[in-house]
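ok so i was messing around last nite and threw this chain in just to see what happens. nothing serious, just curious
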Amino acid sequence: MQEAQGADGAAVPAFENADDLVERLAEYLGRAAGGRVFVDGLTKYPAGFSWRTYGVRLRGFLPADEAILRVGPPYGLFAPYSAIPEFESLSALAESRVPAPRAYLASDDPSILGAPFFLSQKVEGDTPLPWGTQSQKLEGERRQRLAEDFIGALAALHGFDWRATPLRRWGEGVTLENAALRQIDEWEARFRRWALKPHPMAHRALAWLRARAPQAQRLSLVHGDYRLGNFLERDGRITAILDWELVHLGDPIEDLGWAFLPQYRGGTGLVCGLAGEEEFLSRYEAQSSLTVAPQTLKFYIVFSLLKLAFTHMAAARCFEDGLFNDMRMPAMATQIAPVFRQIAKILGASS
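result:
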């Protein structure tokens, strides 16, 4: 199959051309299913700067008539991508108590769609946000039910026996002692790749983290972006936890540090707009059988703020390199300094 060409004569990746994408996806699914599969519709969702997300209508694909296609473009925020970790983690969680979409197929072979991709279940529901209109605000019994599901799903994820699944090979080289340090190393490498100028506070925070890296109580699957905005709700219950691109094996308290960030509270004072800190920790500890030490949570809040600052740097890098022309990218870059001020305040209180 010949690839489409741009105005400059260069080949256009299949995921950049809707007709080409439909044709190639149908061909791939047909080979995988051992019969003809038709792609009757393709809807690109506008949100996000990382993976491209499409809703797909299918005929002849036995698992489902509708699915979600995710493609990791080479210029995405966290490129280069691999579809395999997300696919493997969702596959392993299929029979667990964690509400996650079912994974159908995945490949990192760029000759198929032009970039790594995976196909997963389309779960019904909407994404609630606490800063929306009055009718969208999380209040009363609705908020309480969502808090119950949100905390319960996180505890279930962190209690999931990954060693009894093919994910056991993820544990090679990861220990209770080095789980935090491995994540610091990984994000420092990203910082060095993304930074457009010197950031002394980043180096100060990295040194602070290395000096205080805790030993994990347990090695768990860590979502990596567990927050409000990354789950679907229907009739006041969570139907699916989404956006598993940062999933890895590590210290489960890392997910709490991210969820506790003020950026996801929507001005409510509640963790992810859902529950007070004491209530959140009490429920989580009871369901996970873990103890959340204040110093460990503080460590992961600082780590999470640093991750957030580095992600804003990635946005600035993408914009400066001409990979994205979306003006939200430089807007994200303006948040680097405020996040560093938050870190400085915490580190100052620790000295």
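not much to say yet. The domain at 134-350 is CATH 3.90.1200.10 (Aminoglycoside 3'-phosphotransferase; Chain: A, domain 2).
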